[in-house]
Amino acid sequence: MKLDTPRIAPLPDDAIDPETRRSFGKVGIQNIFRTLAHHPKLLKRWLVFANHILAKGTLPPRDRELLILRTGWMCASEYEWAQHVVIGQRSGLTDEEITRIADGPDADGWSDFDRVQLRAVDELRADSFISDATWGALSERYDTRQMMDMVFTVGQYTLVSMALNTLGVQLDEGLSGFPEGKRP
């Protein structure tokens, strides 16, 4: 974690406005949402976009999680990484693949398409642009909407990683951070 303590403390249940509490139902509210609950209007509007990316986008779940985990790694966002390790496992990524994400697109063991997806993240993070070669390789499998969702997935999780790191959102109970012995 970049910060050992939050800059903005997560709100307890009784301090979260009723509409926000209702939107989460009986599900436990994670630290990211408890922190963003300090700004209910921002949280409400951001959730629409975040839900599109996470639950309503056109990317296969495994691909989406590969992109998100690489973005979290490249942004050094331990909170993002920890949350999406769990989601990535449910989406078909193996523990070995998740650990290898830290090693990037040139690590041994990736399929050609996994490699190009990881490269797309690295290019977007380095230059805010995907090269023609990477774009061409991605478009061999992805349609126009998937290409757009891919770019917006990396952008969404870059934004969230910046907020998590800067606000000091701490890991939720039961989650582990980056793989042992590895740091971005």
Key traits:
mainly alpha, 2 domains, AhpD-like, 184 residues
Question: How would you describe the overall organization of this protein?
Answer:
Helix 4 crosses helix 7 and helix 7 crosses helix 8. It is built from nine helices and no strands. The mean pLDDT is 95. It is mainly α and 184 residues long. The chain is globular. It starts with 17 loop residues before the first helix and ends in a 17-residue tail after the last helix.
Question: Kindly, what is the distance between the CA atoms of the first and last residues, rounded to a whole number of angstroms?
Answer: 11 Å
**Largest sheet properties:** none
CATH superfamily of the largest domain: AhpD-like
In the CATH hierarchy, what is the class of the largest domain?
Mainly Alpha
CATH architecture of the largest domain: Up-down Bundle
CATH fold group of the largest domain: AhpD-like
From the helix content, strand content and strand pairing, which structural class follows?
mainly alpha
The parts where pLDDT drops under 50 for at least 5 residues are none
Q: What is the element string, with H for helices and E for strands?
A: HHHHHHHHH
Overall pLDDT score: 95
Total helical segments: 9
Reconstruct the topology from this structure.
Blueprint: H1 18-24, H2 31-36, H3 40-56, H4 61-74, H5 78-90, H6 95-101, H7 112-127, H8 132-139, H9 144-167
Helix pairs in contact: 3-9, 4-5, 4-7, 4-9, 7-8
In short:
With 184 residues, the protein is an all-alpha fold. The protein has helices at residues 18-24, 31-36, 40-56, 61-74, 78-90, 95-101, 112-127, 132-139, 144-167. Helix content is 61%, strand content 0%.
